[in-house]
Amino acid sequence: MQTTNHVLMIRPVKFVSNPQTATSNAFQKSDLVDDVAQSLAQREFDDYVHALRNAGVKVVVVDDTPRPHTPDSIFPNNWVSFHSDGRVFLYPMEAPNRRMERRVAVLAEIEKQFAIREIVDLGRFEMEDKYLEGTGSMVLDHDHKIAYVCHSSRSHPDAMRAFEERTGFQALWFSATDRHGKAIYHTNVMMCVGKSLAIVCMDSIPDSEERQAVRDKLHETGKQIIEITHSQMESFAGNMLELRSDQGRPVFAMSRSAWHSLDLEQQHRIASYAERVFAPVETIERLGGGSARCMIAEIFLPRLGMAANNCATTSFPEAAHR
């Protein structure tokens, strides 16, 4: 199942630009004082949740906590993923202050509506300085068990192999850079893979063989490709996510700046494919270096009452208590 109708979002309580992630995230800026940043980010968050719900997407909202201070908690897809077999994966994070985002209270809130069979904790790789930041590092084709992964300090092969061994996914690795030749920190800022549509900045893959391998794999798995430019990627046009409404219709979530960066032909192809949800998240994009897709953790878990194995007494690992 490539798309879901249920998502998790974390409402910010003290959003600021995170100095611990700035070195590897070229999209991130730091030009607003804390109180202004928090006020704007919270308004943008609430507007985005409202737009998703209006499109028929079920949103589980969990409030962040003031302590410990986790400035990037608004991007939960990096530390957790929820799978259709009832497993939850916790991921190793590069920035020490992002590791504190893994909170048992968030998982307990999810467990009120969904059945968790097992929690797989990959946080141990942090002890070896090896990271894999969830569906930021990996753009997953669930239907074909493919993980598209670009090389960066936040995506380590050993952690990726551990994910592959537990899930059956196979990684397709490649290098991707911005227009200045700097490695792109997360794969999901340069590509999005839906059920039958993919948005990809092919220009960001400098090696022609790797670029062709990505193109071939997308075609082989039945994806139509919309290619975007470096400039459009910088407006987060690659950071989209396909969801589905409660009526089963495709919904494409994206930022307002991403949509406005597209040309008319690109806009027409997306509009003819899915309903669009525009997130007015300019402050979050500028200070956080992430956009509409980064703010969503998809929930594929079985619903309570629909699962054969309802594990209401799941034992949470140590990493989720930090």
Automatic annotation (TrEMBL):
Gene3D superfamilies xref list: L-arginine/glycine Amidinotransferase, Chain A
Domain of life the protein comes from: Bacteria
UniProt keyword terms in alphabetical order: Transferase
Pfam short name (any one): DDAH_eukar
Any GO molecular function: transferase activity
Protein name in UniProt: Amidinotransferase
